[in-house]
Amino acid sequence: MSAPAPGPHSLLPLSRVPRTGLPPRAVVVGDPERAAAVAALLDDAVEVSYNREYRTFSGTWRGVPVVVASHGIGGPGAMLLFQELADAGVRTFVRFGTAGAMRPGIGDGDLVVAEAAVRDDGVTGQLVPAEYPAVSTPEAVLALTRAAREAGAPHHRGIVWTRAAFQPGLIPLNQYDGAGLAAIEMEVSALFVMASLRGLVAGAVLVVDGVNADDLVDHESTGGYDPHREVVAEGVARGGVVALEALRILTEEQL
Ligand SMILES: O=P(O)(O)O[C@H]1O[C@H](CO)[C@@H](O)[C@H]1O
Ligand SMILES: O=c1cc[nH]c(=O)[nH]1
């Protein structure tokens, strides 16, 4: 007898991923095209679903079954994808994104491994009080750092500023001057808070593509915001391997 056809409720509503059967580890990225590029590194990759900005693949990286999925731009939309993947059984997440550098010495194409994130994400404040921290799983920080070192990728570690507004507005951006923040992006704190609330594992590695607000960083290190440069593409190519390899290391550690 053949298997019954999937019913209307066997797929989650926004990502359209199946409720069961996905691997328990995932690389999540903003851009659906980056999801396809990372999936191209896998053995036996298949596209699982593609709805709105959420494009999901599964495949195998060095013997480890993984999901690769895109979450689009911004914390609220990304949170939907993170929650649906968690509902579908994903237990370990690595976000592989792009970011603007904020700390002198961090240059275009470098990787930044997030240790924690400032929660200006526009979504977690509606889920849990503001004092609740957004932290990476320590083992994910170490796995990403080791994977970056082994890949020969220039890399740094630090706290990132997850900020819902991409464009600067009237409110000055200097509120964290002197706080040593490493980079700015838009989704990491949403991932870290979701994972902590559900008892899951999460980490993040970001490729520097400049900086989107002129007064955030000195321009000796970066060339201004432009994600369409060769130096960024080279960083993205290294970062994809680092993210997948970190999942393999975490699998060895049974995380
Ligand atoms: O490259 P991704 O993963 O999308 O990450 C960064 O790029 C987007 C902004 O251009 C935001 O999503 C930001 O977090
Ligand atoms: O949010 C982002 C993402 C990439 N680069 C930036 O400067 N900001």
UniProtKB/TrEMBL annotation:
Pfam families: PNP_UDP_1. PANTHER family: FI09636P-RELATED, URIDINE PHOSPHORYLASE. Residues 25-238 form the Nucleoside phosphorylase domain. CDD domains: UP_EcUdp-like. Its EC number is 2.4.2.3. It comes from Streptomyces endophyticus. It catalyses: uridine + phosphate = alpha-D-ribose 1-phosphate + uracil. This is Uridine phosphorylase. The lineage of its organism: Bacteria, Bacillati, Actinomycetota, Actinomycetes, Kitasatosporales.
